[in-house]
Amino acid sequence: VLLAIVGLLLGRMRALPWIACAWVQFLLLRGDNCAIPLFRWMRELPLVSMLRLSSRFLITFTLCIAVLGGIGVEETVRRFGRAGWWGAMILLTVGSIDSLLVGPPFLHQAFDRVPHHFDYSTTFRQFADWDMFDQTVVSQANMGFVHCYEYTPWKTSVVGFNEKGYRGEQYMKGPGTVKLSKWTPNRLSYEVDAPAASIMVVNQNYEPGWRLAAGAGQVISVGGLLAVAVGPGDERLTLVYRGWSFEVGLLLSIVTILTAAIIVFTRLRRRSAHQRFQ
């Protein structure tokens, strides 16, 4: 923190973007408990409408502080030479030791409660319990957790196998039968046999990004659940998730990586050229 303060005070123009970024992250970290509720406004945007906890921004806020600390180290060494280097190393060492002494004791309390026990499920199915937050043991038993939103009381039409009204992880809303061929988080395959037009319902939340990659039918929402309207006959359906937000995020990530690589390559070339002419 001391080095970050040094970077803030001595970094001048180099520190300004990181100071501004840290301030924005701090406002987002405050959530709605802030005179300028950036987090509430940000959740109105398409790409970040699913954000739940403002405390996640503590990660990016810490990154900004770390960069300011790095600027502080550079400025200390530049202004005070070897004495500044030793001073910066001492502060970094003290900070590292403090983190080791404070952090691990808290991590020991992460799983201090007695975990629930679940028999392993040979087929994937979903479990519901509003009073339990031990999602790890549920996933280890090859099950999904219906109320995995934890702190956010979002409503869902998904039904757990231990709840009334459970009809399976997939079922026909009308005549016909359905059999699961393959299940992955973003790819689902089914064998459907319908004597007449019917609807296959999947016991999971509907999202517009789900598309039909194989088979004939129309992807729809039935009471908030993912479903496919099919015609009569046998069909092998394959649903894949290709949300536009994922594609935009992937594009932005690729552009960011390429931009960073170009910047690093350009700086290395300039440094090499500068050393040749010296």
Helix content: 40-55%
Mean pLDDT: 83
Strand content: 15-25%
Count of individual helical segments: 6
Order of helices and strands: HHHHEHEEEEEEEEEH
Overall, the morphology is elongated
- End-to-end span in angstroms? 37 Å
Please outline the major beta sheet. Answer: 4 strands, antiparallel
Residue ranges: pLDDT <50 for 5 or more in a row? Answer: none
The rounded Rg comes to: 27 Å
Question: What does this entry look like structurally?
Answer:
- With 278 residues, this protein is an alpha+beta fold.
- 42% of the residues lie in helices and 21% in strands.
- It contains six helices and ten strands, in the order ααααβαβββββββββα.
- The strands form three sheets. A four-stranded antiparallel sheet has the order 3-6-9-8, with no helix packed on it.
- A hairpin with a 2-residue loop joins strand 4 (177-184) and strand 5.
- Helix 1 packs antiparallel against helix 4 (57-107) and helix 2 crosses helix 4 (57-107).
- The longest helix is centred in the first third of the chain and has 51 residues, at 57-107.
- The mean pLDDT is 83.
